[in-house]
Structure formats: structure tokens, C-alpha cells
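Figure-free illustration: sequence to structure, shown twice.
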Amino acid sequence: MAFQVVWEFRVRPGREEEFERRYGTDGDWVRLFRQSEGFVATVLLEDRATAGRYLVTDTWRDAAAYRAFKERHAKAYAALDLECTALTEDERCLGEFEPL
């Protein structure tokens, strides 16, 4: 059963291209996530009605795989998160979801 973590981002004007590169399907985050066998995929969605608003869905094999990744790669995760802070005005996790 797949496990998904959904994030919402408000990207700073003029930083959209770099954000898309870093958060996209071949970006920095995906390269980090691929270090875990439990990672499945990332989908980056752009809101067509609201400029600079994006959703990111990270799919993992299950919640345990996601938690193990976060624990094992905590330093690298925190470092990349800090690097990407300048790209966004707002970032929030909308939740962790499992299909019914």
C-alpha cells in the first residue's frame, strides 16, 4: 500500500525555474529520496490559477519506509531543506495520506 506526503509551496517570484528544477522528478529532493529503497516517486504540480503555488506529492512504499528514510538521512534532509529555503515564501505539509 502506497503512502503519500503532500506539501504546498508558495514560491518567491523569479525563483520558479530553480524551484521546479530542485523539486521536480529528477531534482535534488528526488536524488536524496532515491537513496531509500522505499521511495516510489515524486509528482510536482503547478497551480494554473495561482502564480507561484505548487503541490508536491512524495510517494513511499509505506509509512515505515518514509520514517526510516527521515531518520537515516536526517542531516542531508535538513541541509537540503535549508538550501531551498530561499526559494519559497511559504512551505507547509498538508498531510500524510494512505489510500483506502
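We now fold a second protein in the same way, so the two outputs can be compared directly.
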Amino acid sequence: MPAKPYDRASQDIGNILALEHINVRVPDQGMSTLFYIVGCGFTRDPYLMVGLDNMWVNIGQTQFHQPRGGPHRMRGHAEIVVPDLDALKERLAAVAPDLRGTAFSYSVEDKYVAATCPWGNRLRLFAPGPEFGDLTLGIVRVEFPVPMGHAPGIARFYQKVMKAPAAVAGSNGHSLARVQVGNHQELMFRETDGPIPMYEGYHIAIYVADFAGPHRVLVERGILSEESNPYQYRFNDIVDLETNKVLYTIEHEVRCATHPMYLRPLVNRNPAQRQPTYQRGRDAFVPGMV
């Protein structure tokens, strides 16, 4: 029989297999628990970083890592799919009194709920939908503001160095670079003519299929920042490939697919479960895989 005309390229995600976590420092685990766990409905990892020096927050197959220290305020925002926006709004309203006096806020927008953590990190929380495939819980995008004219060079960097699909679109002279970093996951770099806050040292973690290729280019260009261990390295600067000029700074923790934590199963609770209305067998939430 003749082969069916499938578009095989439509299923390619490029070299970056997944965006796994965002790392931001927090000074107070209690406040963080109120916002991320109670308000947003996420889950503290029960197996790793269970002390007071760090906490890992599970969001489907993605995470926030939150070491204790002076707070990081991330430029831009993270976009997250959650299973139920109505329940989310109720939880955020319930924690609002205990977060009074912090940077916490939330608002209901046309397609998402905007929420700001006690230290000013901004989230946009979306309901599941076709643009996210079968995902019902997870980080899907991180958007950063970048200087005017930098988006095309940033896209070329990811295409040539990290071997990730990237495209540039825009209007009114403002361009947006979109970089695929997993299945239904993107990094977005939006040009702005406004001020860009200082970078404070937070980072993102990604898994890649070709681990050695990008490493070789980063070393050649002198922008590798850390040789972490056999399974991981880091770089900070996204550069113009012609001039090596720094276009944007955000630390990348780059991991290989043989890393011991690759596809580590993450525990996610069902935030709708309550003691007064407890239903047997419904403690866990099983999201669509990122």
C-alpha cells in the first residue's frame, strides 16, 4: 500500500528535549509555600531538597527550584498550564490575606490568570488547550524582554549553537524570537524600547540530545561558564555569531539525556482534594507529559 503523506518534520522538536526547571532564590519558604503550593496548587517535591536551604516545586514534569537567599526577580514572566483556572482563582483569593504587604497580586485576564509571587516574579497561568497538546500541568513558556534589534541574533544563536528550531516574527518594529525547547515548550525573547531590569543570577535548566556539539562551540567562543560534572555544563551569554557581542544574559544549565535525573518521575498532588470532602484514590494528579 502507498505510504500515507504524514508531515514527519512537524513532530521534530530539535536538539533541546525539554525545559526542566527555573531556579530563583527565595528568602522565606513559608511565603513561597503559601503562593506556589497553596495558592497555585503545585507540589513540593517529597524526595529531594526537603530541608530549609532549598525547596523544589513540582509542576507536572517541570519544576521551580528555590534555594534560600536574597530573592531573585526574574525579567519577563513564566507561562504555565494548570488543570482548572476557576479553582486556581479561588485558591489565590484564599491566600491573599496572608500575603498582604508583599509583592503578591493576581488578576483575571482574557485568556489566563496573571499572578505575581511575594517577591515580584510573574506567572501567567493558562487552562489546557490545543496549543499545549495533551499537557494539563507544566511550564510551557518563559518570556524575556530584550533590547531592540537583538531578537534575530538570539534566534540565530539557538539555531546554530544549540541546534534548536527558532523563528522571528513581529510588528511595529518590535520583533519576537521564539525558540523551541521541548514538546510544546518555548523560550521567547521580545524586543522592547523600555528599560530592561538588571540580571540577578537566576537560571533555567534544559536537556539536550547533542551534548558535545554545543559544548564545543561554547568553548571555542569563550562563553562556557562552568564545567559542572560529566552530565552538565553551564553558559550565561547569548552572543552575536558574527561579532561575539553579548545579546542577552541568562544562565543555562545544560544537561545530557544520560543525566541521572532525565525524565525523573515527579510527584504531583491533586489540589482539589480536601479533608472534609476527601475521595478515596484521588490524592495524586497525573498530568500529560511535557
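Summary for the second example: The first strand starts at residue 16 and ends at 23.
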